[in-house]
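Supplementary Text 2. Reproducibility record for the structural model of the 125-residue chain.

All settings were left at their defaults, and a single model was retained for analysis rather than an ensemble. We include the record here because the model underlies the residue-level annotations in Supplementary Table 4.
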Amino acid sequence: MQEIPNWKKYVATLPTLEEELEQLERPADMKKTVYVMHMPPANLGLDVCLNGEKVGSEAIYQFIKKNQPRLTVHGHIHESPEMSGKWKARLGRTLCVQPGQYGHMEDLVYAVIDVESLRCKRVRV
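Retained model, structure tokens:
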């Protein structure tokens, strides 16, 4: 443990999410690549909070748009599919999936994805 006396000053020294994403390894064939990113991208309806606010990451959106991996899987905004009615979206050739986990918290919500065909379904058990 280390005490950080000036949190704002410390945070200003950290890389941005955009800078972190630029440092990620780029496979030779992005068409075969799957990224698991906790935060959903902005602008796709996978990021809607209970109050209706859209909080997705513009940096993640731009990363996906630029690199076009086959599939990205997200979480973080558990209620988003219930709020927006969307749990998957396309950004160019990339399928973005955010199955959510909200409402009947005793249920498990997940997505089953065929990586070859990109057919997927959302399951609640």
